[in-house]
Amino acid sequence: MLDKKPKIKLIGRREHVNFPLLNLFNIEAKIDTGAYTSAIHCKKINLKTENNKSILCFQSLDGVEHCFDSYSQKKIKNSFGEIEERYIIKTLISIGGKKINTTISLSDRESMRYPVLIGRRLLKGRFIVDVNQIYTNGIILK
Fold this sequence. Notes:
Blueprint: E1 9-12, E2 14-19, E3 24-31, E4 39-41, E5 43-50, E6 53-59, E7 65-68, E8 72-77, E9 83-95, E10 98-107, E11 116-118, H1 120-123, E12 127-130, E13 139-140
Parallel strand pairs: 1-12, 3-11, 4-10
Antiparallel strand pairs: 1-13, 2-3, 2-9, 4-11, 5-6, 6-7, 8-9, 9-10
């Protein structure tokens, strides 16, 4: 019988991540086990209507506008403990050598040190975080 369990990888408190579908690469992310959801910095978040369909558009880290016709909204507690309604998109992230389809909230993180925050929902069952390390690129644990 083959062992189909995914390999758990070790990552540090900060890692570089890629968002291939957004054409964003080598973005510094804070790994935050205290946060449930992940977030990415963006600006100019707005809804447009095209062919009687609502489209979510936003400007990413590199200033490029991205539009999604599939999105949701969720109430999320921010780092100040305040509840705010955020838009959520589904996209592909590459972290620690793994490619993961995930949901990520859109947030203006300009006042934050890191443009991307990776939360528990994405980490669970895939990674172990060693807060003494940074930029591990996903060391494989035996």
